[in-house]
Amino acid sequence: MGAFVADRGWETLDAEAWEGPFRVTDMLGLSGLFLSMAFALGGWVLGGRAVIAAPLVLAYAAVPHTVDHYASAWVWWGGAAAAVVWAFVQAGASVRQLRAVRALARRSDTGRTVELDEASLAVVRTAGRRGLYWAWGLSGVAALGCAVTAAVLVTELGKTAEELDSASVSDVLATGAAAAAILAIGQWVHCAWRAIARTAVGQVIWQVPVGPGPVWGLSSPREGQAGMLAFEQARSIPGCSCIEDWRRANPDADAESMEDYGVPAAEYCPVHGIDQINALSPERFIARAAEPWLWDPDAMDLSPTRPEENRPLLVGFAGHAHLGFPARFKNDQVDLDPADSFFLEERTSADNEADDSDWDAPRRPTKGVFDRIDLRPAGLAGDAVRYRHGRAWFDSDTADDSSSGAQA
Ligand SMILES: [Zn+2]
Prior knowledge:
Blueprint: H1 2-6, H2 24-42, H3 50-67, H4 73-107, H5 118-156, H6 170-201, E1 205-207, E2 215-216, E3 228-229, H7 231-236, H8 242-249, H9 256-261, E4 263-264, H10 274-279, H11 282-287, E5 313-315, E6 325-330, E7 333-336, E8 345-346, H12 349-354, E9 369-374, E10 382-387, E11 390-396, H13 402-407
Antiparallel strand pairs: 1-5, 2-8, 3-4, 5-6, 6-7, 9-10, 10-11
Helix pairs in contact: 2-3, 2-6, 3-4, 3-6, 5-6
The protein binds zinc ion (ZN).
Zinc ion (ZN) binds near residues 241, 242, 265, 269 and 271.
């Protein structure tokens, strides 16, 4: 915009794009304008990488405008300089964040080490290589684009606007080549910074809280499991009516999702019904407390005395350069799910302020209590509260549960 005003662009809107024979500078000038326009309209899709792209795009347009002594040259250079300052401010913030993450990693080191299995290591390595493939690919496209542009440019040089019918092709090709080159530079910088960040922080497995943690998209290992049964389990247990009852209650539903997400335990299942929960002796209940079907779907936030089992893990988190891979503890092993890492997003401090992280968890009913079982023998810090007509709820020792006072 500034450049349009400085060049009094409205006076030449109908004129040809260049005067006299077509020169390299004309081609670059047009290409610089196209690229800046494309960046202004679509640059937001680059996200954080726009910080690197902005000064390059503006400088690319500034050079030909300077060579041709356009009045707008200073506007382009001014924009490029401002973009450089902005890039340095962002780089400073990244360095500060990396230092803070590294200090936190040192401070919260528990001294425990876990070995990742071969499948998990493969996931980590493949994700690292994917970034490099992009950098090489974009570099290749840029080089090819430059070659094609040069070949076409040779045929267009020296021709007047009338001879070329006002439509040169080389400037469009050059715009594509420059865009690919700038994206490639951004990708290389991103890969380099990620490598630096991962080396600085080291291979750390973080236990992170689901609420106010550093990234969006993590789910608690137990989320969505309460009141559910694994499909295989429901199918193989003789007498279990959970699958059949679910099908009867949802005749139109697509039953395939059950195989992935499990089956809700049925109220009247002879194996998993509410009567069966309440028929368990306290000792049997304690022994089976980890089985999700015992619990009300809204209820399960078991607080184990070994919190690592109840918290999501992030393998290799190193600040915004590398968000890491979500994982969870299963049978003393770190289980890494590659599909989950697509859903990770950085949570900024602004997000944290806006985030309602003291979301009120649902509280258990006050009436209809059947009995209360101390679960500390099962390694859980709290009580199970069983109900005459519903599944059990967990009362943690730390929870501020006002309903328990009314209840006692
Ligand atoms: Zn059942």
